[in-house]
Design brief:
The structure is a homodimer. Chain A is an alpha+beta fold. Helices cover 24% and strands 30% of the residues of chain A. Chain A is elongated, with a radius of gyration of 27 Å. The relative contact order of chain A is 0.10. Mean pLDDT of chain A is 88; it is low at 1-23. The interface between A and B is large, with 84 and 84 residues.
């Protein structure tokens, strides 16, 4: 028996109860997407494993007949019992966020064109320099430079939905209490050693302080201070790493006007977006 | 009863069978991580929901007594029945890849410091120009510019673990059959409209062709050709979008030597990594 997909399953309790003993093949509610696929709505579904299993089986047959390709099911944390049911039907994991896991299935025999999930984490390193030629540096309580004696620039992760310059300003304020203005991105590292096989971009940002009293973040930072730029770049730990040395050279050169970075141009968009590039010479 | 965590549960069938009627509280095998947390090894565990539930409960109590903080459980697709059990014990989703879902729990009352999962997807737009002042352009079969008449640069997603310049070279070859050499990154867009709430970086790359016969990718591209740069930038669709116009201006200026981009410097690393920055003036 196939019940119309447009009916809300939660309103069909009586009809379904009347079927006791028969197999229940009610179709799952689903929205069509722009890529000949469907997105299943399990928001209002009963957390009933047996009913979900029979509906899912019937629905896959139905979608296959309709020529549908990708099937997406977003399963809330509270509905986790449905996860093994979907896996049993051939679904795999696409991505997960704290409150849900997204499962996908590719129905046709053609190569699967479902896009990969997010591939990168993004961080910033903030070079904050004042008019005395000093740079804002910190020592960290954990991480690879803990107890190394290295005075380093503040660094941190950009949050999902956050802009690079906004993230740089936030991290400097959190770690040191210093408010800053963004100037330029002078370089970025394209790396691939982030946790869980993810890739990792680090943007090196130049910033100008607009407040001067250091207040350190106790949980992460053991010390912070203003340090002469030459002294900063000459630290042995800085000179031993090609990457740290390159980053310091570019920052110092930019500060001295010997190296151009990318400035930020706002883009009209629903969420704050920007295009970063060099100034164009007009001669 | 608490059995040593170092014993392999799969070797304890006899001991466990002898306990029938008693509660089984065998501890889960786990490795300590660098952040006072533990990573649970469920690779060799029986896919036995009841046993997993009782072991997980006992293990959480044990880790709490030890002062452990974050608990990570990687559950393979084949073990999906264990997912609802962990959720029931307070775990949530951290991330998922096609073959597994990673679950996490934060034991102490202190704020959770478990890092977020990957936040960004990364793409490239490739400006490939030849010595005649022509740029390589395509028309797409799907996406936002389908049927728009716009001749656009080849674009595409960077894969997890892939470098930006390598990804740009690959995408151009896939879409047009043209082999290229990477020159510079001239800008990037920091956007936040990717699927599933993710952020989205697009790197604009300058490349030089090293082969010249166009062979289009039938599945994605409807046409490709070399187009005079002035004609490319003057397209009405290009002039109507501030972002597209800015990108075209920067590319043309870079091609004419009026705008500096970031070149790539290799970084010694386990996986191919690079630092991108401007050249430093030495005067």
């Amino acid at each position: 028996m196939v019940v119309s997909a447009s009916e809300d399953p939660s309103n069909n309790d009586n009809a379904i109860n009347a079927l006791s003993g028969e197999e229940i093949h009610q179709l799952l509610k689903a929205r069509e997407d722009r890529y000949d696929g469907v997105e299943v709505d399990v928001e209002n579904m009963h957390n009933d494993v047996r009913r979900f299993a029979s509906s899912l089986k019937a629905s896959i047959t139905h979608w296959a007949r309709q020529g549908k390709k990708g099937v997406w099911i977003k399963v809330a944390k509270e509905q986790a019992k449905l996860v093994p049911v979907a896996i049993e039907e051939g679904f795999w994991y696409h991505h997960a966020e704290p409150s849900y896991v997204m499962l996908v299935l590719w129905i046709p025999k053609t190569p699967c064109t479902i896009p990969d999930n997010a591939s990168h984490q993004v961080g910033i390193a903030a070079f904050v320099y004042n008019s005395k030629g000093e740079v804002l540096v910190v020592q960290e309580k954990c991480g690879p430079y803990k107890d190394s004696g290295l005075w380093k620039m503040p660094t941190g992760r950009i949050k999902q939905g956050e802009g690079i310059k906004e993230g740089a300003i936030r991290e400097v304020r959190e770690e040191t209490g210093i408010d800053t203005e963004f100037i330029q991105v002078v370089g970025f590292r394209d790396g691939h050693n982030a946790p869980f096989g993810k890739s990792d971009l680090l943007f090196v940002c130049m910033l100008k302080p607009i407040s001067f009293d250091i207040v350190i973040q106790d949980s992460e930072i053991s010390a912070a201070k203003w340090m002469a730029v030459d002294e900063f770049a000459a630290q042995p730990k800085m000179q031993q790493s090609k990457l740290l040395k390159d980053i310091a050279s570019v920052c110092v050169a930019n500060m001295q006007g010997r190296c151009r970075g990318f400035s930020s141009i706002e883009i009209p968009s629903r969420k704050p977006s920007a295009f970063y590039c060099s100034a164009i010479d007009t001669e």
